[in-house]
Design goal:
The complex is a heterotetramer, with two copies of chain A (505 residues) and two copies of chain B (164 residues). Chain A is α+β, with helices and mostly antiparallel strands and 505 residues long. Chain A is built from 17 helices and 22 strands. In chain A, strands 13-12-9-10-11-14-21-19 form an eight-stranded antiparallel beta sheet, with helices on both faces. Chain A is globular, with a radius of gyration of 24 Å. Helices cover 0% and strands 60% of the residues of chain B. An eight-stranded antiparallel barrel of chain B has the order 1-2-3-4-5-6-7-8. A four-stranded antiparallel beta sheet of chain B has the order 9-16-14-11, with no helix packed on it. In chain B, strand 7 and strand 8 form a beta hairpin. Classes of the chains: A alpha+beta (505), B mainly beta (164).
Chain lengths: 505, 164, 505, 164
């Protein structure tokens, strides 16, 4: 029950989530301290913060994961609290403990709660204790191959192998038959070892055509907990979400009520404090199964913010300051429908291959119902070292169709040159009949990509004309250099004039 | 000005003429009257027969990247000869070269010189943006040379593997 | 009761409102036709529309006011309806009639209603008939000086002289004493004559420390009408609004209910169809007086959209198609608080002098609760011929303080180089104690400008350092030209590299 | 490099030195270590003693326009001589010139050559962006010349009226 008014917060993250948190702090009148790696000197979060300090070389382990340096910056700059964002140190119980010991508030749950939920089988055992249904499987971490085999035979195939020490799709394996088990288990354990330093795994029965639906919760230090309804997260590539929405097209009022109550029960059993998300699989008969809990802010939190009108980051900060939740469950309502598209620097036409590099030109969408949480600018070099997420584009509308229409409109306005992004992919998904009907599961992306390829033919002509005219202007300009010497920072202006003149010849 | 253009796997002959405040662009002999006006940076507004489009056009490696509403196309352009049939066809014979499709780090080599590999078999694992990506053999054959070592940082287009 | 599904709409306007309407059409799946003057070939509304056609030289009377050409473009392009936006032809009864005669739907009220409300004294008489209180004064247009004098003496001083044939602050005069009356009336009539071609005026008693509060209404062709609550519009310069918000800080639930009912009564008495706005003055004792009705979309409509969750432009289109209102009064709720800042190309440090010209650089704000309805881009030349509004920046928050905090944050992110804008002025207003308390009337801007001048001293140092380093780089670059010849459209890239290199010397 | 700088009515002597990856900027002898990094176009991120700012800097007529959070400042710079006291003071004597503060159209002339006017009295009405603006006399005096006619379009800085 820490009750302390913050004046300054350090944001131990980068990219769009650091920008998001800085904005919340600024709106609360709090000072902000950014940290940055050598690769991020020109990143937007550095420019936006009130203070900024370097913490090391580009690789995350040498900078954004350097707990000692980050805590030292917090001390030196006089920050009372650290917001970890997501990823990096957000679910690191050791870091939360180090903050606690340094007398700095970690904006998140207590370190014990992070550890409890971080070990996926202890989270499963806690769910059982709270009366929350889990996917049938094992409740303990397993290492012994013969034990794995006997448990697998008990559960039956197909089944999933998962790393016990962490989530996020690492070490995940779908095993269709008993024959595949041995080599799959070996590979899963080796991946778990390299990702988390712990090779124990656990088993879950595979759910057919599952939907991935999660519940947002908030819990304060005074024992109050509420849920903020669901997010539908079934549109995934490589077990990572690319599109999320709320409400889910399949969740009925009864299921919403049930999942919300289960989530609150688990949170209260765990003594959880902070914003958090409970992930569920929902089968074709609308039975929910608890998967795991993320003890941090979620990438897709804006979807919940748009439908509830609440600001989750500000609420995290207020909870960490010891304030009580400013509302009860009955005060919360879903209004309209929201959808988020994660704009990644990836090439959807080549299996979502990373596409770092310089953004030559950028046109962002605007207007009614559109929120752009981005962390790039024209001329920005997207570095190769970090997550490829460059923007969260969110649309809010009256109902699902209205939100989808707004998102289609915004996606068509969003133009990026210099790197590949997932924007053209969203343009296709947002017109796919199954997606429009809300009829999809976690295998949608693979299926949809296979179906819809090729460009509309009418565009080829426009693209040819545009490229040819540009080349024509480039060549003419090269032959007839202007008398004006292009020395100064006003280079763009020269170009603008020339082209205009060219067009009037 | 005449260009040999390739987009989405097809080739076109494109001619551009400036005419008053307009351009006449002929694509394989079919003329379009294009009203082109710059709209900031690499963007331009095109009006063709009253139909309006905003495009971004930037010259990059391999051609002009054109971004339209909902789509992105790469247009390769070469100065065309006056006559027809002068398109330089891309050679598909000769030794296949596997190049880096993105900047990144070589994490692992999965093959060695002299080894026979199947089409699609992984040759090199590259890492960028926290993701590992396996680069496959373009066709079955023997590895002639590996041009990189594990841990090496490479740029887009860097030669990684040569196949016989 | 026209019931016709539109497929294509012509937007008879330019700038941010044309962009706003095109976005609504696109979200409804409707084709869009833009018209443009010779000065607007590179304007955003042209690039965004599906089709675009020129309608004449830069002056509005030769292009955007050319009814014949606009109707001809609608015919030729096959548009079923014309949306007039605001300004230009939006309240021109003759244009509405010409559309009706050409068989094209005018998205607005019937031409008779426009005429009825356009003549301000007939609107006042209608209000009296509907039981809506008006500012005490005359009910007929006046031209005869002796009649003006006798009416003025009856009403008492101070009083307002207003043009009978139109609104918007044209021909407006505050008369403090009987001595000033004669010359003020002469000037008012001459202004009215030149603005509206009609020199008749009417008189209203001056209200002390008035607040300008308006009610948004919607009425369909089936006799249904609702109000969408109030907007507070007291922050004005030159009798034009610069900041609007909803709810008003002074409107009580009772006053809201009363003003809303009065507005609906007037709308129904008039047989009004379309979105519309009733302007009221509210005195210090919270008595509302009807001023006039705007029979069109309002610049500040986003404020209402943010708090109600409704899309007024889409609703205008659906009403014009003959659809019924999709909700009743009881379905409408105000949620949170919204505020709009009108970003004008004007210099607030020089009495809001116009500042047209090229936008050299532009950084738009984003993130939670921010909506930017703009119609400019980096490199855009703001023309001298039209209204200086370049963007409507809107913030939505939990309550007034939250909305103001978000607006302050967004304003600090919004950066424009090349022209002057009202952005620094908003930064000052949003920190002014009277404004924060909600304690202001229509004289606020003059007063606040007089009080708060001068720049924070800490910034001088940063500005000096920034300008000096830029000049240093410019000069060094001029002396050491790079080997690379800057021929192509990638001029920006060259500059970026050079500076980076410079920083590392 | 040394500059004589004027901002918000005050003059400063500013010296810039590049030093490693930083700049040392001395303002009237007080040194600041500035970590400057371009952030697209005319924007740059400045970090001074850990304090971060993003600024836009563009050279325009009359100096460098600097846009910071919530403020916009015009910095006039002249290459400074090595010694002090070399600032060229702006002459405030001589005939006053009234120039156009914006591009626009001359709507009306309110005074004529030879006329005596009071300080603040309107001389010219200009129109731009649908607004008429009256340009006042900077001080009392006699009109020497009117350099424009009604209906004429003028650019920013155009000479309109000369006063004795």
């Amino acid at each position: 029950m820490v009750e302390s008014r913050f004046r300054k917060i350090l944001i131990a993250n980068r990219g769009e989530i650091a920008v998001r948190i800085i904005r919340a702090c600024r709106e609360l009148g709090l000072g902000t301290v950014a940290v940055y790696s050598e690769a991020d000197r020109s990143a937007p979060h550095v420019a936006l913060a009130d203070e900024a300090y370097p913490v090391g070389p580009p690789p995350s382990r040498d900078s954004y994961l350097r707990q000692d340096r980050i805590i030292e910056v917090a001390r030196r700059s006089g920050a009372q609290a650290i917001h970890p964002g997501y990823g990096f140190l957000a679910e690191n119980a050791g870091f939360a403990r180090a903050c606690e010991e340094a007398g700095i508030v970690f904006i998140g749950p207590r370190s014990e709660t992070i550890a409890l939920m971080g070990e996926k089988t202890s989270a499963r055992r806690l769910a059982v204790k709270a009366g929350v249904p889990i996917v049938p499987g094992t409740l303990e971490p397993l290492g012994d191959p013969s034990r794995i085999r006997s448990e697998a035979l008990r559960i039956g195939f197909p089944l999933m192998l998962k790393a016990a020490a962490g989530g996020g799709g690492k070490g995940l394996r779908l095993v269709a038959t008993a024959e595949e088990l041995e080599s799959a288990a070996a590979r899963a354990r080796s991946e778990a070892k390299s990702a988390f330093g712990d090779d124990s795994i656990y088993l879950e029965k595979a759910i057919e055509r599952p939907r991935h639906i999660e519940i947002q919760v908030l819990a304060d230090q005074h024992g109050n907990a509420v849920h903020l309804f669901e997010r539908e997260c079934s549109i995934q590539r490589r077990h990572q979400k690319v599109i999320e929405e709320s409400p889910s097209p399949v969740v009925t009022p009864e299921l919403r009520e049930r999942m919300g109550s289960l989530a609150v029960a688990l949170v209260q059993t765990a003594g959880y404090v902070n914003a958090g998300t409970l992930e569920f699989l929902v089968d074709a008969d609308l039975n929910p199964y608890f998967l795991e809990m993320n003890t941090r802010l979620q990438v897709e939190h804006p979807v919940t913010e748009m439908v509830t009108g609440e600001d989750l980051v500000k609420l995290q900060i207020r909870i960490a300051q010891g304030e009580k939740l400013p509302f009860a469950q009955a005060d919360l309502r879903q209004r309209g429908h929201a959808i988020e598209c994660r704009v990644y620097a990836e090439d959807p036409d080549r299996g979502f291959l990373p596409s770092p590099g310089r953004i030559i030109a950028l046109r962002l969408p605007g207007g009614p119902g559109i929120r752009d949480d981005s962390a790039v600018y024209e001329g920005y070099e997207v570095p190769i070292h970090y997550d490829p997420l460059i923007s969260k584009l969110v649309a809010h509308g009256h109902d699902r169709n209205d939100a989808l229409a707004r998102m289609r409109r915004a996606v068509s306005e969003y133009k990026v040159l210099g790197i590949k992004t997932t924007i053209p992919f969203f343009a296709r998904v947002l017109r796919h009949p199954d997606f429009l009907r809300g009829d999809f599961d976690t295998s949608f992306v693979e299926m949809a990509l296979a179906e819809t390829t090729g460009q509309a033919d009418g565009r080829i002509e426009v693209a040819l004309a545009a490229a040819a005219i540009r080349a024509f202007l480039d060549r003419r300009q090269a032959r007839e250099p202007s008398a004006e010497t292009p020395l100064l920072a006003s280079g763009w202006r020269r170009r603008g004039w020339r082209e205009t003149a060219g067009g009037r010849l | 000005m005449i260009f040999d253009a390739t987009v989405a796997g097809r080739s076109y002959r494109v001619e551009v003429k400036a005419s008053d405040a307009r351009y006449v662009v002929s694509i394989d002999g079919r003329p379009l009257t294009v009203d082109w006006h710059p709209t900031g940076g690499v963007f331009a507004s095109l009006i063709i027969d009253g139909q309006s489009q905003e495009v971004g056009v930037a010259r990059g490696s391999g051609g002009y990247a054109v971004v339209l509403d909902d789509a992105s196309l790469l247009v390769e352009l070469a100065a065309g000869a006056a006559g027809a049939g002068s398109l330089a066809k891309k050679g598909s014979a000769g030794p296949a070269k596997v190049t880096a499709p993105m900047p990144g780090k070589i994490v692992r080599l999965l093959a060695e010189p002299g080894q026979l590999v199947a089409a699609g078999q992984g040759l090199v694992v590259m890492e960028a943006m926290k993701m590992e990506n396996e680069l496959p053999a373009p066709h079955a054959g023997r590895i002639k040379a590996i041009e990189v070592r594990e841990g090496q940082a490479v740029e887009t287009g860097a030669l990684l593997v040569v196949m016989e």
